[in-house]
Design goal:
Helix content is about 45%, strand content about 15%. The protein has helices at about 35-40, 45-65, 85-100, 110-120, 160-175, 180-185, 210-225, 235, 240-270, 285-290, 300-305, 310-320; strands at about 1-5, 10-20, 25-30, 75-80, 105-110, 130-135, 140-145, 150-155, 275-280. Strands 3-2-1-4-5 form a 5-stranded mixed β-sheet, sandwiched between helices. Strands 8-7-6-9 form a 4-stranded mixed β-sheet, sandwiched between helices. The protein starts with a strand and ends in a 21-residue tail after the last helix. Bound molecules: 5'-O-[(R)-(carboxyoxy)(hydroxy)phosphoryl]adenosine and zinc ion (ZN). 5'-O-[(R)-(carboxyoxy)(hydroxy)phosphoryl]adenosine (KG4) binds near residues 163, 178 and 181.
Length: about 350
Amino acid sequence: MKILGIETSCDETAAAVVRDGVEILSNVVVSQIDIFAEYGGVIPEVAARSHLEVILPVIDKALADAKCSWDDIDAIAVTHAPGLLGSLLVGTLTARTLAILHNKPLYAVHHLKSHVYANWISGAEANFPLLAMVVSGGHTQILYMRGHNQFEIIGTTVDDAVGECFDKVAKILGLPYPGGPNIARVALSGNENKYRLPHPKVEGLNFSFSGLKTAVLRAVQKEVGMEISYPSHLLKDLLTPEQVADFAASFQKTAVGILQEKLKLALEKYPDARSVVVAGGVSANAALRKALPKAYFPTPALSGDNGAMVGAAAYYEIQSGVEPVNPYTLNIYPRISIEN
Ligand code: KG4
Ligand code: ZN
């Protein structure tokens, strides 16, 4: 079964053809990073317009790379939730129209589900029940999965997502958007024990990352001896490259430590969990991969947003008996939970 997966929930326009949920026949991702590096973050209206410009060529390329015509495609899958409203609209309306035009069944996929399924398409041999830790720009959650397509949230962030925290700390340090990969790069030459940053005190399996961002800001202010507030280009100009590297390394060590600590607690609370999978943009982080040697991770190329994971997630939904949606009425849900 060949599924065309379409993803436009944030700032990547992506389409892929996936065979039987595990084999990637093509995977095209057009990133808007260059546009948003200039602004220091995603601007929703600009993201939506960029999706509109490239979505049809991206889908054409995904079909061409897979050497498929529309006759070869058995189903279309699209991210309909959660994400940026305008971005989701472009992907879903395109998928709806193509499904009607080419008479294909249409499947609507939750973005976090597709991130989790990036693991299976990367060859994970995970056993149920398992714990899935989703670490992205918009979410930080630990999920308990009894089987395919069954998700129970057992921990979630009470404020910022971990990826958001990487992005905000990068801004404080004067590193370009997206912060995660840039912090990881700069941290390589830094001393991770230079600055002591506290782990937040949050009950149980929940996370909090806004305090960590503030702790970095306070430490930077102390280091430069000035109370300039966030975000300020003045603040970063006062830091030396060595200090930036040390802050990046110390912050990364703390963020990874928090994730590691909560996952350990989750494994204690759910001792029947037989595997751990990690997913979402932050799962590309090498320090996190090193800290969790027993967990499954997607290949780095599939950690961020892509269409292949959407096709994979839809395949497992179909196997679980999920019905196609009505292409004339499919809606988008910018904030809906994975449990719905
Ligand atoms: O999953 P994703 O591509 O989009 C969302 O669904 O949010 O995640 C994007 C997030 C951004 O916050 C980005 O800074 C972070 O993932 N990220 C990383 C790395 N690569 C991307 N964070 C830490 N280390 C990385 N290597
Ligand atoms: Zn994502």
